Amino acid sequence: MYSIKELQSLISSEVDNEIRLLNSLEPKNLYEPVGYALSMGGKRLRPVMVLLAYNLFNDSVEKVIPAAIAIEVFHNFTLLHDDMMDQAEMRRNSLSVYKKYNENIAILSGDAMSIMAYNYLLNCDSSNQVSMIRLFSETALEVCEGQQYDMDFESRMDVSIQEYLNMIRLKTAVLLAGSLKMGALAANAPEKMTAQLYDFGLNLGIAFQLQDDLLDVFAVQEKFGKKIGGDIASNKKTFLLLKALELADLQTKSIIQDWIQKKEFKTEIKVKAITDIYNELNIKKITENCIEDFYQSALDIWEKIDVEKERKAELLELAKMIMSRDH
Prior knowledge:
CATH class: Mainly Alpha
Order of helices and strands: HHHHEEHHHHHHHHHHHH
Number of helices: 16
Number of domains: 1
Radius of gyration: 20 Å
Oligomer: single chain
Number of strands: 2
CATH superfamily: Farnesyl Diphosphate Synthase
Helix content: over 70%
CATH architecture: Orthogonal Bundle
């Protein structure tokens, strides 16, 4: 079995090779931004999940690298377009693609990335390739559905917590779940185990996004890699905001709604005002409890995966690593 660090090193090396290739291609304004998006780094969680799931059943992880690259390229495509839709100027302490180049370039380069992802996937030698492509297509469409719900929620004041959880399931969790299932499919794993790995990833992914929402308010900006309070400033209907609206008395709820409806405001003042309300209502602890519930559901599924504990130990380590992050 490979360790997480070994898989991260392997996938980072492969991504670096792709970046060098992209930087040599023409037209430069199409491919260079793709390389730039991929060069911003990150922990490469999703491609590592592909390799890790494959490695549960097969030690020849190099065979599934094209599928892992496909997942990483697609994920970065979604970030590229998300940043533009959210008007987020920073990504991993670097300028967002649309800020470094321009919006038209970012749109076209993002489109190219979504197509390139399929080309990488087609290079994966597996008898389950059709199932892998079907999974990839379904997952990609679900991610788009989640993003649309996220944008729709910005203009709604009646979003329920259940609707929100479904949105992050689609926008974030299905790609983690799909990454694990992709690796399992490539390794011709039993259907029951591919389903368990998917459900494990789904619960872990929801916990991951809830933690991301929490970090957006309570993290240290230098570690987080983007401005703290971005969700508050843009009226994102996060778990924190929805739970605050649910628990607040009429006066506090009115204050929150006033801030949401304001067209002109100083970001720092708005973020502090809403954060103060979160602190009064103990929203941080409530969110942490919800995160723990989904994380525990993932661990319960991990226990049931019929693979030797030693062999699936790295999968558990990955889950712990994801949930212990502070950025």
